[in-house]
Amino acid sequence: MIEYKKIQKIMQDIKNSQEIDLRIDNAKIADVYRGIFFEGSVCVHQGIIVGFNQEIQAKQVIDAKQAYLVPNFFDGHVHIESSMLSPEKFAELVIPFGTGTVIADPHEIANVKGLDGIRFMIESAKQSLLDVKFMLPSCVPALPFEDAGANLFAQDLAELIDNENVYGLGEMMNVPGVLMQDEAVLEKIALASNRQKMVDGHSPNLDGAALDMYVLAGVRTDHECTTVQEAMDRIQRGMYVMLREGSAAHDLVNLLPAVNSHTIKNCLLCTDDKQCADILQRGHINDSVRLAVANGIEPIDAIKMATINVADAYGIKHKGAIAPGKEASFMLIKDFENCMPHAVYIKGNLVAENGKYIANHHAEPNAKLTTLTHSMQESMQTILPEKLLLTIPSKKARVIRVLPHSLLTKCEIMDVITDEQGNFVFEKNKGMLKLAVVERHKKTGKIGLGLLHSEYGLQNGAIATTISHDSHNIVVSGDNDADILFALQEVEKMGGGIVMVSQGKVLAKLALNIGGLMSSAEPQEVAKALKELYAVAKEHYKIWDKADAFMTLSFLALPVIPDLKLTPQGLFDVTKFHFVDIDASK
Amino acid sequence: MIEYKKIQKIMQDIKNSQEIDLRIDNAKIADVYRGIFFEGSVCVHQGIIVGFNQEIQAKQVIDAKQAYLVPNFFDGHVHIESSMLSPEKFAELVIPFGTGTVIADPHEIANVKGLDGIRFMIESAKQSLLDVKFMLPSCVPALPFEDAGANLFAQDLAELIDNENVYGLGEMMNVPGVLMQDEAVLEKIALASNRQKMVDGHSPNLDGAALDMYVLAGVRTDHECTTVQEAMDRIQRGMYVMLREGSAAHDLVNLLPAVNSHTIKNCLLCTDDKQCADILQRGHINDSVRLAVANGIEPIDAIKMATINVADAYGIKHKGAIAPGKEASFMLIKDFENCMPHAVYIKGNLVAENGKYIANHHAEPNAKLTTLTHSMQESMQTILPEKLLLTIPSKKARVIRVLPHSLLTKCEIMDVITDEQGNFVFEKNKGMLKLAVVERHKKTGKIGLGLLHSEYGLQNGAIATTISHDSHNIVVSGDNDADILFALQEVEKMGGGIVMVSQGKVLAKLALNIGGLMSSAEPQEVAKALKELYAVAKEHYKIWDKADAFMTLSFLALPVIPDLKLTPQGLFDVTKFHFVDIDASK
Hints:
The structure is a homodimer. Chain A has 17 helices and 28 strands. Chain A is an alpha/beta fold. In chain A, strands 1, 2, 3, 4, 5, 14, 15, 16 and 17 form a nine-stranded mixed β-sheet that branches. In chain A, helix 4 runs parallel beside helix 6, helix 10 packs across helix 16 and helix 11 packs antiparallel against helix 12. Chains A and B meet through helix 1, strand 2, strand 3, helix 6 and helix 7 of A and helix 1, strand 2, strand 3, helix 6 and helix 7 of B.
């Protein structure tokens, strides 16, 4: 919100001086209200658009040279953590692509650090030029029994719901909880609803009467649609549908047939999860706009889905359009084939040029960062090899099998060869991998063990990562115990991150010093480290080309996606919704 | 806003009983989100739409017989006072036409009774089934020097701005005040803006840089557009444009070319001023919808302008569409040629059928009514004939000339014949009428006198009315002093209203017991009385057929419409913006 005294000050200033700060002439101005581009000037004073007067004096006059002048884009739903960058670095990365506002759900860091993690995100983001509106994570942990770093109830979220940067409740993934009217779940929705704040949703495959109930319960958005029918079912019920284009999920093009002159108002663009290397390479929401236009959407319509529609949905009144009273945050862009702004303005200041962040403004390292770096509570240095013993007396094991290009797994019952004590031995089970999930938040000492089918393909080493949805314990996998233990020790030394080891040596690593999820390094550095990790995965480990080496591991610990997952408490059969033994006879 | 505990109760109830209150089958459901009508059922429980499940058990099942099921209409901007009915009676009148929500600006009663008048409207409306959202009148009085019943500053409005039924600031007519940055004016806008509440506008003919400033200042709507260009200029700047169709102003059809698939989101329907006899005869917002459809707008688009677009503009989240979680307030309608609902539901209850209000709910007479009836402070019984003497020594007078079908007047300099004392005499100035505006709010004793050109045509009598915009003093006109005085006495006896007298007898009258503006009688009675008044105007008085006998008089006291107007302080030259003498030589 813009305080009215600021508007008064601007009006007074213009009246007194008959001069404004900035006039941009000769632009093709995106008019999201009339659905056209019109040629003209945009006048800016003290960071606010004050009109279209071509004749007013200005301290600075810029010739747009017939470029399009477009409001900065919104990301309708994003987990900043998925970029692997701190909020400040994320800001500096996405701003040059024309992103000015994001609706962020700090779900990942909340699973590690609870309210402190959310506060850290809010405070860090505040120091950047990116406008970050926060949705409070609704499902921490993802399931009640999980070993997450925090357990957030409505009374916890209540501490932050009235924060001026908090716009509502984050994606309500607990669909059964909503439908069964779980009191704790509805309390969280009530927290946002009673303040007329937004409640985001997450409801793949839901339809009919169940979808009615989910909407009745107060959920207003969904970014999980993958079919036109799903999108239409939700729009019909007044929901906002996010057309997602992220690193892993590419739903935008599939959903475009749902966009027409009526439904467009309820269609928003989002990335959800987009990793920094992808952003560097392909862009951010501007890439979604480009893709929409390339697939037949009128540029002004694509712009609407990336600007005013998000602003309207989330009640952000002073943004998303080029009009008097709106924030002077816009970009100049030559064409929509590339959709790459050559100049990005925030509050009237040029902050990025030709893809480079040029603002003098750089966020100070956040004071709270120090507490967040120490996210590893359990000392990996003391884990004994005995902890990795996997006993399967019946010699029939439940093995996790990764499916191609999917986060789903299959539970495969396989014969395994053991030693005399009934313990799994690598040598006699060619290619089969051990998998461990090690609790890292509360020094519980819990280690869950499992077997991963050889198809995943890791050879001669181990990978450990502190990104493991949603509780973000440590997932480690390898083809020998020594490397598994070494990887755990190394990941602890880094203070969290991803490490790849082989025969007692580190082959590649990426330190994620903020909660084991994000790096405070430069995006380019993080992207470079990631590239090296992928190179090792491919060339040294020979990991299956139908799996993403790291994301596959990261989701093996999430006990809400079928079939078989591993938690610090052991194997979990998601379909049957209970823990199972590694020994298939049990 | 619907409290979340109500939603929880509904969900719980359905879960426990597997039964709902009401299911309407076989309807063509207006889907304002997808822009279509779809065939199906609508499920209602405890006044809320809970979904489209055709199979759920219901206590009551209604066959819509393929009728359209449409959300109840919104009137985007209305002065209820112009209906001449109390809020409760207005509610019972418009509900059968499918109006469920109105955005009301109690500007007229506020000019008479100030905050008490507004509170009366809010409290009265609350007792009706109509949902009335209030905008606080921004311009009371219309001009600072006026003899209105109240003078409302920002600090006065502050008492009501946080009322749950107050949605913002009413039409900001003081355009020069905004543009000149009058502190008192901007303070009022700040009051609404700083709470993210709406600020309504009123800016005929404004364009370019001045319009930019008006929008920058925070004004968000306009219902005064008469041309497509005006509408487009405002939509371009993000304003909401109201397509007005009232008793006097018929702008809707002219503005329809401004409505397209992009702009429609910013287009709303409103009546502004519609008198009860017109509503009875032609309908309310349903008549606007009918007219739009008759002029080529798709029915679903016309419905959007009358429902969801208004709800969105004013941030009314639980209305304006048929979707889970929305209030079960809708109508059944057979066709859009007549656009007359045969059944109207509010919160799940049938409240009107075939044009008849059938709800058992009738508002109790408002306790505050008694104070409002005594709006006449000056005793007319004591006015001496001498007070009506009109001295014009130069025998050249400034005469008000009414223009055909217009609220504008002309200042005509005319020769008049006087007696020896220089006083105007009726007998020798054939057809010329005396006009007086008598202050009625604060016992100031002020009487402004003027002359009305014979074209208006009142013969053999006098008319007095307490409706006289915007200060609502008494306007009286006649062709002899005795009837003028008698009319003043009679209008006082009634406690306000309209009275027509001739030779000491009352020919027709309409008592407006609430502030001299509204009647607490039944709409049919008021309409009947009005009809009689018009008959007398035509048959007895022979009033000009190019003037509305009463509205013409009512606007002769409004010193913001050019050229020459009359106030209790005397003649006012609106163009020169100062008082002038009746004697043209002065």
